[in-house]
Specification:
Blueprint: H1 3-17, E1 28-33, E2 36-43, H2 46-57, E3 64-71, H3 79-92, E4 99-105, E5 108-113, E6 121-128, E7 131-138, H4 141-153, E8 159-162, E9 165-166, H5 174-187, E10 195-201, E11 204-211, H6 214-225, E12 232-235, E13 238-239
Helix pairs in contact: 4-5
């Protein structure tokens, strides 16, 4: 067995043992290119994507990971439909009401909300085959994270590349993660009014509390995974009547 074959086998074994990654339903192609692991394919959700990348990056003698993984959407939609849904969400979000918003398609840029004197920044959206790219500059990490979560929520979204800058630069920490997550829970129509307690340590989020349904429990976890810079989510939420 060559070194390349051994590395591929090791990565495959790690992915296969992770319960959140279903290689039978969603096969992942694994390759080695110049010492880096290449992961390609569609996985079930953002949790599976982030876990796969983390597991591959932890393999000894691997120089890095090339991410070509996308999330299989619940419903396939064209880029135009994704754009309409996402831009409407960005325009409605109270936390982003002072952000200018643009949409870029090839060589055309359309302004949906112009910059104002009290602007909290500007966000530019581009979509290519279900992959949403966010660029621009905002005044806080919470703005950046909320825009990213709204992109993940857009029906048909397969991936989010959140390249929004924060200016002036803001030091990130666990408190910033929790502040943004609480805002997301308040925005999420599936979770409003639910008693969910979140805490973070070294970018690992732990969720506790109680919700009414298993769908709400899963939704809360995926909301946490969707936050920029979250490395892991421990879901201890219970399901039952309050």
């Amino acid at each position: 067995m060559t070194r390349k074959e051994a590395l591929i086998k090791k990565v495959h074994g790690l992915l296969e043992r992770e319960r959140r990654i279903n290689l039978h339903r969603h096969p992942v192609r694994i390759d080695i290119a110049e010492g880096a692991v290449v992961l390609e394919g569609e996985v079930e959700d953002i949790a599976a994507k982030k876990l796969a990348l983390e597991l591959a990056a932890g393999v000894t003698d691997v120089r890095g990971v090339i991410d070509r993984l996308h999330v299989a959407p619940a419903e396939r939609k064209g880029d135009g439909a994704i754009r309409v849904a996402l831009c409407e969400s960005l325009l409605r979000a109270p936390e982003l009401r002072n952000c200018a918003l643009r949409f870029r398609a090839k060589d055309r840029v359309e302004t949906l909300r112009a910059m104002q004197h009290d602007s909290a920044g500007e966000i530019e959206v581009a979509i290519d085959e279900g992959v949403v790219t966010l660029e621009g500059t905002v005044i806080s990490l919470s703005h950046k994270r909320i825009a990213g979560v709204l992109a993940w929520w857009a029906p048909g979204c397969r991936d989010v590349v959140n390249s929004i800058d924060v200016a002036p630069p803001e030091e990130d920490n666990d408190d910033e993660i929790i502040d943004a997550l609480q805002l997301v829970f308040e925005m999420d129509p599936m979770l409003r009014g639910e008693a969910i307690l979140a805490r973070a340590a070294n970018y690992v989020v732990t969720l506790e509390g109680q919700v009414h349904t298993e769908a709400q429990r899963r939704r809360a976890e995926l909301d946490a995974w969707a936050l920029f810079a979250v490395d892991k989510v421990v879901n201890r939420i219970e399901v039952g009547a309050p």
